[in-house]
Design goal:
8 strands; 17% strand; binds 2-phosphoglycolic acid
Length: 254
């Protein structure tokens, strides 16, 4: 863990749950006792957002946006801006998730535009970075991550003194069941933290989390790594039983 000892438990519900299912899961989570070190954030679908925000209004669980657009308002059919998510009660925003990059063709340039718009609000950006299997096999993993981080953070003057979360999510580990070796995740997290601090300055906070096939039986191995400050979980966060096991594992590791 980093000095502040926070553990981020980030639940990316993707497109797994509809409105009723999301509100039901939020209602069940609201009853959970967390410790002050745990920062839990749920990323519901945009349709379920206000229902989930409402459920968590008296709890310490935060809500985040899965995807944002970088223009505040305008003729942009189907898009929702960072400013609108902030106004709807979100505190965090994912940027550059591997599914956005690889299924919807989002570039490093677009991720940068989104980060700037997110920082214009009070949302905390959660930048997702990660290499493909081919890039890893050809020894380019660190290079790819560095390019993604540099593109997002170089000369980011609006980021001074802000909090940033970077999720190391190797593309080959997301939704595949093939989780990254915790020692390798730690090595990458260390590199990401170094680049992040260098580019964002000492007065910004940079936390690195790991994501990609995190489950109840492997989460503890990531949380004990010194540069890994939490986990970003997809499938296992969208079910009450597996998510509660992950939360329990985090509570015993603080
Ligand atoms: P997964 O997804 O836990 O289902 O692999 C992780 C993510 O996409 O953030």
């Amino acid at each position: 863990m980093t000095d502040s000892k926070k553990i981020y438990l980030l639940a990316n519900w993707k497109m797994y749950l509809d409105l009723a299912e999301s509100v039901a899961l939020a209602t069940a989570l609201r009853a959970q006792k967390l410790s002050p070190e745990i920062v839990m954030t749920v990323f519901p679908s945009a349709l379920a957002l206000s229902g989930v925000v409402n459920e968590f209004s008296d709890s310490d669980i935060a809500v985040g946006a899965q995807n944002t657009y970088f223009v505040d308002k305008g003729g942009l059919t189907g898009e929702i801006s960072a400013a609108m998510f902030a106004a709807a009660g979100c505190q965090y925003a994912l940027v550059g998730h591997s599914e956005r990059r690889h299924l919807f063709g989002e570039s490093n340039h677009l991720a940068r535009q989104k980060i700037e718009a997110i920082l214009a609000t009070n949302l905390v950006p959660v930048l997702c970075v990660g290499e493909t299997k081919e890039q890893r096999d050809s020894g380019e993993a660190a290079e790819v991550l560095e390019a993604q981080i540099r593109s997002a953070f170089t000369d980011l003057t609006c980021g001074q003194g802000r909090q940033f979360i970077v999720a190391y999510e190797p593309v080959w580990a997301v939704g595949t069941g093939a989780a990254c070796d915790p020692f390798e995740a730690e090595r990458m997290a260390g590199l990401i933290e170094t680049w992040g601090r260098l580019l964002l300055g000492e007065n910004s906070e940079v936390f690195v989390v790991y994501g990609g096939s995190v489950r109840p039986d492997n989460v503890a191995a990531y949380l004990k790594e010194p540069h890994v400050s939490g986990v970003l979980v997809g499938a296992a966060s969208s079910r009450l039983d597996t998510w509660l096991e992950i939360v329990q594992s985090a509570l015993t590791s603080v």
